[in-house]
Amino acid sequence: MANGSTTSEDIARELLTFIARPASSEEAFNDLALSIFARQFALNLPFQRFCQLRGRTPRLVKSWRDIPTVPIDAFKEFTLSCVPAEECERVFMTSGTTRGDVKGKHHHPNLAVYDASMLSHFREHFMQGTARLPMGILFPNETLMPNSSLAHYLGLARQHFGTADSAYYLDENGLRIDALCEALQKAEQSNQPLALLGASYSFVHLMDELQARGLSFDLPKGSRTLDTGGFKGQSRDIPMEDFYAQLSAIFGIERRLCINMYGMTELSTQFYDAGNHSIPSVKRGPHWLRSRLLDPLTGQEVARGERGILAHTDLANFNSVTTILTEDVGIATEDGFVLLGRAQGTQAKGCSLAVEDFLKAARG
Amino acid sequence: MTSTAYNDGFHDPVFKAGYLPGLQDDEVRWKPMQLGTPNDALTVEFPELSNAQLKTLASRIRQASRAHLKSCSVSDIVQTIDTAIARLLNANDPYRQALERLLPRATGFDAAMVRLGLNSYLQTFRSLQLQRFVTEDFANPKILDEFQVRPKGGWGKAIGPDLLVHVWAGNVPALPMWSFVSGLLVKAGAIGKISSAEPIFASLFARLLVEVEPRWTDCFAVVWWQGGDDAVERCVFAEADVVLAYGGNAALRSMQDRMPATTRFLPHGHKLSFGMVSNAALSVMRGQAAARAAALDVARWDQQGCYSPHVFYVQRGGQMQPLEFAQHLASELAALTSKFARRTLTLEETASVASWREHHEFESLRQDAHRVLGDPSQAFTVVYADAPQTLMPGPLNRCVLVVALDLLQDVMPLIEPQRAYLQTVGLAAAPEELLALGDALGQAGVTRICALGAMTSPEAGWHHDGRFSLLDLVRMIDIDQSAELAAENLTSYEL
Hints:
By secondary structure, chain A is of the alpha/beta class. Chain A has ten helices and 16 strands.
């Protein structure tokens, strides 16, 4: 069993082997999860104290399900890392939309595991047997956003699965709409399928712009989109159904190939659906990642078919914490989950209160 | 989901909300909604009136209130309300039984809490209390009935609006009664909009009132529209002389934007309340009682009221230390969960409680003295903070923060940022502290100070949010002394 003496390199090597397998048994997943947990407990002091507070120490935790779920806010409050923060190759930060300026930080001693996790799962669910595709990326590159896990993710996609003429169409000056239209027209004429990847809200901006110009495209068969992150606060908030209907209509892409990725700065692995021909789509993770739907107070799993808060155990999170409690509401399905949105504080009723009002007042 | 429209003895039929004089059920479009918990949902149908129907209703009420309400004396009105309240306090009365059956199902509140809460609430609306209520605002209540001599000379009369529009909230059952009764006492015709969270009380109360006093049949209506509906709100507010509304500041602002500049608007926005315990109350004997009273304030209506406490500031240096007070408060809250069960929380409410607890758990990892008391599986949380904490709202549903302070005066800077939102303070302090603290709290923006244990039961005639419940509704008509003197020169007989 791993403990404080296991190095990051040891654990990373073990994980790379684990990820490379086609699948894993419950037992193998459990063993590795408990071993990573024991190491994180030994080396990560804030996490250790959190586990003690919850009464869940390695001596008592016998199943990966018993590992304390760390609320994602903890990434804002504490340094969750087994190695000193300054020794980490990369720190990914949250965009900080939910709590003012405080950003959650995810420390990665090296990116080998993150990259292996991303590449393996992306190949299967997005590339689907195609080796490389020309990619249009609607997001700034990694140089512009060095702390964005999404920028790194898209960089990996381009480097490993994009053809030489793949390009970024979003930079500090905004969307390069003319260049993108040119690329879309070229793809339309070439019979070479194109992949468009980016934040969901960038697609909304792009579609608004194309509609304003009266443009639509009929991209070659096999073209696809990957969107991620939702729209809240960044663009028009549009219903899922309308979003994918528009996406499909404007680019001439079948909705089966309009794929949504669900990822978080606090994870090292992503989820994908198998297209958005029916909504809401089921999101699935790989064998080194398991998800549950919990009652956020008791930590108990909710009954099958009931709404719960998503908790993920991602073994690729070998340096921070394997098990996190999100703020997302979902429902479990046979082989994944359906995402229902954020657990917004309920609308304050009547004269009692609206937290937002008070927060505004307190900030002055 | 199926709903059956018959009463099989176990399930209520669909509840049709509202009270709509002059309109038959089949003339109205009804919108069904499920209230309560999924396991025991109550289907309520809400009336969706057209603008034309609302206008007709407004004019009908205006006329009827002139004819049948303005002609009643205040004493008659008090007697009628008293009769209705007596029926609601009678366990055998069908209206009372309907309230006891429907309110817990619609709101999810514990049935015993609803029963006892209703009693203590209804008590403040009996004849004696209502007379006090009127006298609080009008030293001479006859000024609502006829012209009275004014000390300055001349004559004066107070006239209620022909049409008062209420926009009610649904956070606490029966809350609409305060403004409903206030309107009646000044003889105002009224259209009240129920909240979709608690459509029961106002609907039944209106029906009961006209059963008691049939001449009031057309004097008021209880309606519903989707809050924020621009066209409907413009239409209704244009008909009103006065609009009295409860809600969030954003909703209140948008209502005001939909109102003619000449309409008087009486908004009651979100409020924040808290408690204070002086070490005078923290002897071994008294401390326990103070904790018990504080626990009741927290548990009643699961903290959903504007008067419900979010924080208790507790003074150090008594026999019982603030941490012990917090521990007693936790055990009292634990005891209360078996007497009054907490509502079943939605996933969102649970998440909000969980995230509040987590925030304080994180804090306790940084500061040993910071404590989270109560297991997450219990239906309450008490957090003890040893360091000063600015007053902030908690997640409701029996989550409360106990903050230790050396002096109660130290509270003032901590509540300062919330000045615009302050309402009730539950206070346990010695007599010599009472007025000094009252002064300081008043300056800080607090509008009501009461005993611990009484936070959720304002007295009849209280100044809600520091305002006058009746005076704010009326307008005065003055007959100046000059008119009287001039009239004296115009007698038909010669002097």
